[in-house]
Amino acid sequence: MTQYRWASLIDPGQTDTADVELLDDGVRATGSQVTGSYVAHWRLDASVGWVTRSLVVAVDGDGWQRSLDLSRDEAGLWTCTVAGGGSPPQDIAAAGPDLGTDLATALDCDIDRCPMTNLMPIRRLGLQRSRVPGHSLVMAWVELPSLRVIASDQRYASASSDRVRYSNGTRGVDVELEVDADGMVTSYPGLAVLAYREH
């Protein structure tokens, strides 16, 4: 088990942490995102083929809370259960996928502003081991703190053994991620930088 902590380059009050168990062909992890207005805790299972099997996220805000249970079965069918209570901000989106959201081709989840979830496509595509051309992927992107689920168009490609080219059409991002030997993001330009790691 390795513990990671990232410092946000967007919000000085935000910290992301993850306890990561790397397996022979996947990963299990738990983590949190702490900000001045909410705290999110999550649990991820991508233990077979680096493909998401389940992601559970719970958010606690000021006078409100929400939870999301997102899973993908062996046939590729995504299911989602949401719950909540209290009085969330009026401008916050509804939890879960919008009507018509198509996740049929998605293999991965992606947690908003959390560098840990870039790990799965990096490892599954073998981007550090050889020169891999660009791969276009669809992610089940979980917005925080709303827990809205979006089909996010993203692209990954090899750059070097410690860098990965990454773009996100949904959010207008096109950067080179710095990664460690395990494929974990250590620097995400404009978003976060690794502040702590302990095996």
What features would you describe in this structure?
This protein is mainly beta and 199 residues long. The protein has one domain. 3% of the residues lie in helices and 56% in strands. It contains one helix and 15 strands; from the N terminus they run E-E-E-E-E-E-E-E-E-H-E-E-E-E-E-E. It has a 15-stranded mixed β-sheet that branches. Strand 5 and strand 6 form a beta hairpin. The mean pLDDT is 95.
Number of helices: 1
Give the distance, in angstroms, between the N- and C-terminal Cα atoms: 6 Å
- Residue fraction in strands: over 45%
Rounded radius of gyration (Å): 16 Å
Provide the residue-averaged pLDDT. Answer: 95
Taken in chain order, the helices and strands follow as EEEEEEEEEHEEEEEE
Strand tally is: 15
- What sort of overall outline do the alpha carbons produce when their principal axes are compared? globular
Largest sheet: 15 strands, mixed
> Structural class from helices and strands?
mainly beta
